[in-house]
Amino acid sequence: MIILGSTGSIGQNALEIADKHNIKIEALSGGKNTSLLSIQIAKFSPKFVYIKDKQAAKELSKTFSKTKFFWGENGLEDLISSSKSKKLLNAIVGFAGLGSTVTAQKCDKKVALANKESLVVAGKFIDTKKIFPVDSEHFALWYLLGKKKPKKMIITASGGALRNTPLENLENVGIDEVLAHPNWSMGRKITVDSATMANKLLELMEARWLFGENIEYDAVIEPSSSVHAFLEYADGVTSAKLSRPDMKLPIGYALLGKYDGELEPFDLTKLSKLEFREIDIIRYPLWALKRKLVSEPDMGVVFNASNEIAVESFLEGKIKYSKIAEVVFRSIEQFNGFSTTKLSDLYKIDKEVRAYAKTVS
């Protein structure tokens, strides 16, 4: 199989499962962590490897002469097209992962999708029947879904690192505070998105493409991350999926088709008290965009691009945490009503939104 984003947390978990179950790794792609990528290449001996930086790729090729390296703007697409594997895990972060999802589908590969932005931005251009969701929430919805169609799908949010921070202190929280997630070990960008609730908005937009538009979508806060999703039916029944917060479960299903006996089940008698909270738009102002984004999915590209720029600016110390939402709201207003029938338009508008978001960051 092919693993894109192998040096991130999802990629590392996937390689651990692949190693344990003797899955041959044909291709890898990594980011800036060349030391970890080097270790992975030595262990799994992939035929193909992508790294964005040309010089870094050339340096690695001196050590791994039997591996073909790809780099640059079209390198990922070339790697995918060159690979014979029919299964691909896309764990690239952000809009950068879209091209790989599109290319994989053109090459008739089954995509295990951890890159939620592919569907948020370009859901109308992607065949979701050939997608297996790796996000814990979408996996939970898939796991619960039977032949009976639900009236409503509800995913859960941990509330992020600032869920109990006094509202008056949110204006001046530091980067380390925002990145101190209480439940999950994740990358910096997604951890910030968890704090602002942007991540949950992305997941609702993704769910709409995966499960259909004639369902109501919502989210609630469940601080322990023990309950991952609910399905609500017209007859008043609600079903829930509970499991430990471990990404190896959805990854295992994506890679193996099942993951039996690998994860310790809950002892319900020892389960701590479950608590559910509404998502408060005072603490999480971006949540006010929920209805608009789910009902106008083409606006996903505007939301995603502006949020990526705002989070990047925050992590670089250029703006306060509280300004992330302001950048997104101003961008949504500036590009309100965007719609397209062409995939190429998404790349154009993405650049325009990013340029605008930088001017207001």
Structure explained in plain terms:
With 361 residues, the protein is an alpha/beta fold. It has three domains: 2-134, Rossmann fold; 137-245 and 264-284, no CATH class; 296-360, Rna Polymerase Sigma Factor, Chain: A, CATH 1.10.1740. Helix content is 42%, strand content 13%. It contains 15 helices and eleven strands. It has helices at 9-20, 34-44, 54-63, 75-82, 98-106, 117-122, 136-144, 175-179, 188-196, 198-211, 248-256, 290-295, 300-315, 323-334, 343-359; strands at residues 2-4, 27-30, 48-51, 68-70, 87-90, 110-113, 131-133, 152-157, 216-221, 227-232, 238-242. The strands form two sheets. It has a seven-stranded parallel sheet, with helices on both faces. The protein has a four-stranded mixed sheet with strand order 9-8-10-11, covered by helices on one side. α4 runs parallel beside α5 and α13 (300-315) runs antiparallel to α14. It is globular and about 55 Å long. The two termini are 40 Å apart. 43% of the residues are buried. The mean pLDDT is 94.
